[in-house]
Amino acid sequence: MKISLKILLLTVIGFVLNHTAEAQNQYNNYRTMLQKVDALTRDYPSLCSSRSLVKTIGGKDILVITIGAGDKDSKPGIAVLGGVEGSHILGKELALGFAVSLLKESDSLEIKNLLNKITFYVFPDVSPDATEQFFSEVKYERNVNARQTDDDRDFTSGEDPYEDLNNDGFITLIRVSDPAGNYMENEEDKRVMIPADLSKGQKGSYFVYSEGTDNDKDDKFNEDGAGGVSFNRNLTFNYEEFGLNAGLYPVSEAESKAVLDFLFDHFNIFATFAFGPQDNLGQSMKSSERPGAVQSSPQMQIPGQGQMRIMDQERRITSILKSDELINKLVSDKYHEITGVKGAPSPKSSPGNFMEWSYSHYGRYSFSTPAWWFPVERDKNADVAFLKFADENKMDGVFVPWTEIKHPGFPGKKTETGGIKPFATINPPADKLEDLVSKNYKFILAIAEMHPELEFLDIIVENKGDNIFRLSLKVHNIGIFATCAEAGEFNMWTRIMRISLETAGSQKFLSGQKVQRIPRLEGDKSADFSWLISGRGSVKITAGAVNTGQISTSVELK
Q1: I want to staple 368 with a disulfide (CB 3.0 to 4.6 A). Which of 41, 193, 278, 326 is the partner?
Q2: Pairing relation of β-strands 537-545 and 415-420?
Q3: CATH for the 30-134+229-285+320-372+428-448 domain, from 3.10.350.10, 3.40.605.10, 3.90.1150.10, 3.40.630.10
Q4: Is 216 helix (H, G, I), strand (E, B) or coil?
Q5: pLDDT digits (tens, 9 = 90+) for 203-239
Q6: DSSP states of 284-304 as a string?
């Protein structure tokens, strides 16, 4: 009897432990995300707060989690965003996982010191209407919110949605056997359908469509389903007018406006990290060799530090600028070092995306990565490469075998459903989440340590006689990042660094300005300042801006 009870107890404990482990390796739906954010604010009230910026048209909150110590908005900040593309569910997990990991380690000396210098703003999911499709009864890759849109421009909305014809819960493909078809099976992997190439003498034998029916009889399948507008196509940089899922105009959606307003209002943010399809970490961006990296129009003169500086009236950035390219390369190398990733997917650019907006229009250091990918050799079919990768890594259940069905649109023709499951090629199995969260967390911490930071150097007081003193010093950036991205140097959303000197009593300025502008300082660079002051006593010097932090010191003139 005792042995039976012991076995039962061990079985129960094993079940609980297994269940707990499984719970830690699951993608979080919207409700679970809210619960985890609430738990963070409850468990770490002095370091963490959260608020909803707005509700989407689908009624879901756009949350921002603020993590830091003291006066959080007055220190250099980093924004971390998940859900920039709704089908990239991994990004949501990495952003939320970063916040959880940071707060769990907040008692360590390393994290305490970091949070005394840096504030993190974490947006766990900026596309919750779209990401929730991953958890729906019928799963398909969705990037748009819940706004009703006429995607096929026939003056009717939502009349041709996805339909799960084989009732397996996944929207895949249908293939119709037809001698007039333009698709064929791939010779390397017959599960994959490819367009027949007439130049190679290939002949098609199938038509291939998205799983569903042609409800509006326009010879297109599922072209006008539920929703909507994509956050990652709705921003102002290279916005595509009348583009699919781009919205009626730039920043037309409540979530787009709320996120951008928050970022614009927080001048202390010096860098953004987004988890999504754009990538400048797997492979860094290259600056243009041509002078046209910044396209110009009539010029205007702008006062600079002791000289007139030239700037274009329309400063339109068309590629990463040279000094920012160096930082991007450094950060990319660090990403490879910490995460151990190899290779990189082909760069994906889309009009109105967040990564390019953050750099070109917001003027911040902007980094983005899908964080997980599979290798694709040049000129190889991506679906074939994925299935090979899945087989080698024992990723089960990523493909729906081709199965014959009856389709009302193709009477008398052999019709089958099948194909790679939605989300599978861009989101890893859930058992990979813990490792990916850990590596990307460590990476962001390492980059945060490179933040711009000022110090005073070489403070010298010279007594010139007759109660006159020359005070000189250097303002030095001890960080690796410049005090602002080169793209943000003349951006109205970048705070200008200033140095000010306050005298006391009867002291008077004989030369030098009470308040001066500090030029942009790259890492390990300095700017020199001097004043000629009449009168003994103490003077106070303050320098910096919210995105670099403020420093101050007192100097005795005697």
Answers
A1: 278
A2: unpaired
A3: 3.40.630.10
A4: coil
A5: 999 999 999 886 655 556 555 556 799 999 999 999 9
A6: -----SSGGGEE--SEEEEE-
